[in-house]
Amino acid sequence: MPDTSQPTIHSEAPADIGWRVVLPTVLPLVALFTFAVLLPLTDNEYWALITTRAAIYWVLVAGLNLVVGYAGQLAIGYVSLLTLGAYTTSVLAAGNVLPPLPTFVALAVAAVAGAVFGVVVGLPALRLRTFYFAMATLGFATIATQVALAWEGVTGGGIGISGPEMPAPFNTAWGFLYLCLALAALVTWATSNVAKSRFGRALIAVRDADVAAEANGISKPKLFVTIFLFSGAVAAVAGGLFASLQTYITPDAFTFELSLLFFIAVLIGGRGSILGPLIGTIILTILPEIAAPLAAWSTFLYAALLLIIVLAMPGGIAALLDFKNRKPLQSDRAIKPRPTLLGEILKRSGADRPMTLKGIVLTFGGVRAIDGLDLNIRPGQVHGLIGPNGSGKTTTLNVISGYYAPQEGEVRLNSPLARGAPETRAEHGIARTFQTPRIVGEASVIDNVMIGGWIEGQSSFVEALMSLPRHRQGERSLEAAARLALRAVGLEELADVRADRLQHSELRFVEIARALMLKPAFLLLDEPAAGLATDEIERLGQLIKEISRQGTGVLLVEHHADLIFDICDEVTVLNLGRVLANGTPAEIRVHKEVISAYLGA
Ligand code: ADP
Ligand code: MG
Predict the structure, then answer these.
(1) How many Å is the Cα radius of gyration of the chain?
(2) Whose CA is nearest to atom 25 of ligand 1?
(3) Ligand 1 atom closest to Cα of residue 526
(4) Which atom of ligand 1 is the closest one to the Cα of 398?
């Protein structure tokens, strides 16, 4: 029977939530920009200079924020792109290599150069972890100033070069301020669009739950190239503006301190926020001015400020402004799944053939974690996988989902699945949950669930950047689907709560909702009942059973024998990476070896 409550879910939620979420973030931005726009009333050109500088820094930091605050990459040497942009614009405008170009054309060329070098600077992030990547970006910063110093014929070497002159009406202090403010407003708008789009969610997923990101089909290399292209381009534009503001640039202008300033602005602003880092940039631009007598101490000041922030408010300014998540949650809440909604969610799921594992062998060093495993997971059935700790259950899931490439054997759907390519599994309709939930704690529950819909997304990065109609449409239907999935697992009331405020048992259901977003043909569950109360396990069982009734093949790794015997159609018992027994729950329950090796204990 069609569920009559459906249409309301689709229409009510987004419009209602929209304003409550948007207002607190948009209002401060509007106030800040209005304040800046009204500055000429003071007739104080000193303030024009400071504000222009803050706006220019923000153009760079806004892009860097996606790299540092969203993707979580420690790019501390981003001044290299400012240097590149400053010199490219200045040299092209001065006509040192080609005939002089108009300033805005030179800026556009700098943006392209910045995009390319943004990728060059950023790509080590795919191989280098945290600290090493940070060092690599610093290396580029040094290279950029050294090139500027050595390439005298073009850059003027240590003597420097004039910055580009702005055409009227941008050639006055106030005109230039307005230009920089307009660009600052533009990047604020664009990065806010990215942040709340599927790309922003993919970035924080890669940052905080990278295996979950891959399992949902998010390709980190592609995503990073896109982000580095964008942030490199805006950093170089900031460089061009910076050169114009300075009127004359030498390699000394591009210091390590400046690079630190950009990075710290994001940190004190808080990860995963646009407003926070903007305020951070403003503070760090003004700070040296009001502390002018302490100029020699500026590095020290930054360091002290950073320490205070890290120790006193680890979430940065953004956490201070996060009023929404202060409200205490109801303490006696229960998870009440609604399996009847699954029909609508899983509409076109279900494969026509089983997924088969044949002769899988996987060794870690000398240990045979899986030792010649055959398994058939049939559509529309719940297949239990049980066995003592260390028997290879999680490893089996990891082989199916592509995290491990087995030394022998293959996983087939219709054709053999690519070995060791986890980001390809989502397209095949294989979804999974994790033994330890992989959730982005700092994102809301609904955002976490929407990460599961990544491969459904049609819109390109540029469409997201500019919030074009097709993108907005896609986001709306994704959100409606995510709310429906949350309703199905019984968590819709917590949709807008930050995920790290949930209980462990609730996170397990969030993971199931995220997995449902794929409309999975096969669903792999790794100990979903661990840490759940008895009544919750019972409801979980009904939910899983109903998922399989919709045609999805479920592989259930579990320790709770009751759950396994209640809902499974077939059970495989593993021991030391080998199949000890395979059969119906009734057969397994009385299997002698199983009882002595596992159940009897
Ligand atoms: P479980 O059945 O409890 O889920 P696992 O699949 O996690 O067991 O582990 C199976 C065996 O493989 C264990 O002996 C474990 O120590 C080993 N193992 C699993 N992952 C790794 C790894 N990444 N490196 C080395 N050994 C591993
Ligand atoms: Mg395990």
Answers:
(1) 28
(2) 364
(3) 4
(4) 6
pLDDT band at 233 (very low <50, low <70, confident <90, very high): very high
Fold for domain 339-599? Rossmann fold (3.40.50)
Q: What is the pLDDT of residue 252?
A: 93
Q: Closest Cα to atom 13, ligand 1: which residue?
A: 390
Question: CATH 1.10.3470 region(s) of the chain?
Answer: 21-324
Distance 369 CA to ligand 1 centre (A): 6
Residue 123: band (very low, low, confident or very high) from pLDDT cuts 50, 70, 90: confident
Which CATH number is correct for 21-324, 1.10.3470, 2.60.40, 3.40.1350, 2.120.10? 1.10.3470
* Structural tokens at position 492: 């819709």
What SS3 class is residue 557? strand
pLDDT tens per residue across span 70-90: 999 999 999 999 999 999 999
Prior bond to 169 cis, omega within 30?
Answer: yes
CA of 576 to the centre of ligand 1 (A): 10
Ligand nearest the Cα atom of residue 578: 1
pLDDT per residue over 250-263, tens digit each? 999 999 889 989 99
User: Which ligand 1 atom minimizes the distance to the CA of 404?
Assistant: 23
Output the pLDDT for position 3.
42
Q: Which atom of ligand 1 lies at the shortest distance from residue 392's CA?
A: 6
Taking CA atoms only, the protein residue closest to ligand 1 atom 22 is: 364
Structure tokens at 341: 């909604």
Of the residues 361, 363, 364, 525, which should be mutated to test ligand 1's pocket, given the most ligand atoms within 8 Å of the CB?
364
DSSP 60: H
Length of the chain: 601
Domain with CATH 3.40.50.300 in the chain: 339-599
CA 481, distance to chain mean position in Å, is 20
Ligand 1: residues with CB < 6 A are 364, 367, 369, 387, 389-395
Distance 388 CA to ligand 2 centre (A): 9
Q: Mutual orientation of helices 103-122 and 220-246 as an angle, nearest 10°?
A: 140
Max CA pair span of the chain: 91
Distance CA 596, CA 71 (A): 49
| Distance of CA 392 from the midpoint of ligand 2 (Å) | 7
Ligand nearest to the CA of 395: 1
What's the DSSP call for residue 67?
Answer: I
Least confident of 8-12, 198-202, 468-472: 8-12
> How far is it, in rounded angstroms, from Cα 88 to Cα 542?
63
What span, in angstroms and rounded, lies between the C-alpha atoms of 415 and 433?
Answer: 24
Q: Indicate the pLDDT class of residue 16, thresholds 50, 70 and 90.
A: very low
Q: How far, in Å, from the CA of 392 to the mean position of ligand 1?
A: 6
Q: In this structure, which amino acid lies at residue 310?
A: V
- The residue with tokens 């950093």 is 235
Ligand 1: atom nearest CA of 393 is 2
